[in-house]
Amino acid sequence: MEKGKLKKVGQGPEAGASAIHIEVYGLSDVGRVRKNNEDNFAVCNLTTGEVGLTQSLQRHQLGPRGTLFMVADGMGGEASGEVASQICVTTVPRRLRDNLLSLGSVRETNFVLLLREAVEYANQIIFQKAESDPGIRGMGTTTTAAAVFGTNLFVAQVGDSRAYVARNQKLVQLTRDQTYLNYLAEIGAELPADPEKDSRRSILTQAVGSSESVDVKVTYTRLHRGDCLLLCSDGLYNMVKSPELMEVLHSDPPLAEKCKMLIDRANANGGADNITVILAQVEGRGLPPAETTASVEYQEFREEDFEPGVDPSR
Questions:
Q1: Structure confidence by residue, pLDDT tens digits, 152-179
Q2: Which of 12, 199, 223, 257 reaches 20 to 30 Å from 67, CA-CA?
Q3: What's the Cα-to-Cα distance from 291 to each of 152, 287, 288, rounded to whole Å?
Q4: What is the distance of C-alpha 28 from the center of its chain?
Q5: Phi and psi (nearest 5°) for 163?
Q6: Beta carbons within 8 Å of 55's beta carbon, 6+ residues apart
Q7: CB neighbours (10 Å) of residue 204?
């Protein structure tokens, strides 16, 4: 378990941000069972406002306002899940960037509060739209929004889409699935003998847009040179387990081909759901060196960790 105390990280995004380079790619596929794709994803340079997978975004320099990656897995049946996930991946980047632009300077705490607020705002938009239209009432979406801001990766999550960091042949999950079985574990209730085969393992305890309010969980970690970030919907990780994921992530092809390889493996293993993948590689002298002994440590975001002069390892 790599969750634990981090070394001092409250250094501000300006320190070396311009020397951090990001390569990113993403793909989404309907899978082999579903009739339509209710997943959506987004990549946004929060400094320039550029959104999508343009050539300039696929390889770009990290700006002072960071870069956002998002995966959203919609639910609600027919086209309503797709509506919810599309609203989410459109609303969150725009809302976050608009609020960042309204500030003269941005520190880690402000950034995370605005990231969380952007997801909460998307929740309101989706919920209100569903309430106004009986045909899509009850729709919602998972949201995993990971932002590189300075040397830190902040991950906001609702639902069970996941964020991972691969480093030194290890793949570390930074999110915790917000499912009914995990809820039972948290309250100390009896768990089924074989959770993987229990029908309740995919029941979510919350989703963006399914209720008036949402509890956005945020974790963070400090990035190192060469780290590979993986965001995905459950259509990937339910079909392709960690050893196979790592095999692909540590292979030689470019990110675009790796994304296709992951989706192909999910489909080869059954393709029971929509499959969405974002891969991002971070490099540059603005990040700590890629030491062979460095593990991925992460923890839940706390404002006090980023107060000037505070060392959260104490």
A1: 999 999 999 999 999 999 999 999 998 8
A2: 257
A3: 17, 11, 8
A4: 15
A5: -125, 135
A6: none
A7: 19
Domains of the chain are: 17-303 (3.60.40.10)
The single residue listed with the structure tokens 């801001």 is 149
Q: In the structure, what pLDDT confidence band is assigned to residue 137 with cuts at 50, 70 and 90?
A: confident
Does 1 score more than 70 pLDDT?
no
DSSP 79: T
Q: The tokens 């989703």 sit on which residue?
A: 207
DSSP E strands, the chain: 21-29, 39-45, 59-61, 67-75, 140-141, 143-149, 152-158, 162-167, 170-173, 217-222, 228-232, 275-283, 298-300
pLDDT of residue 186: 74
Banded pLDDT at 78 (limits 50, 70, 90): low
